[in-house]
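Hi everyone, sorry if this is the wrong subforum. Our group has a chain we'd like a structural model of before ordering constructs, and none of us has done structure prediction before. Sequence below.
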Amino acid sequence: MIIVSQDKTMILNFENIEVIGIGNPLEDKDGKFKILIETTSDNQYPIAEYNTEEKAKVIIQKIYCKYEHSKHLLSSKSISVQNITDYDFIYEMPQE
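Answer:
Right subforum, don't worry. Here is the predicted structure as tokens:
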């Protein structure tokens, strides 16, 4: 699965991500809740920002669900390749 950042400037391979979390809004000058990823090579990138912590938590849950869905598709023996689309393996970070 890949994740496309909110501003569409980054594409991240989920296999290279170790942690997805919510940054501290007190550390951000505009007080937004940033979703941060940490890669397997110890780099950290902000991939989206939201006005509330609740919204950021919902988005993290949606990433998890999309990942589980894509894992299920890859392991399913009853689904044909024609029924799988690129969309099944892409998560685009939503705007506010």
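For your construct planning: The two ends are 22 Å apart (CA to CA). The chain has one helix and six strands.
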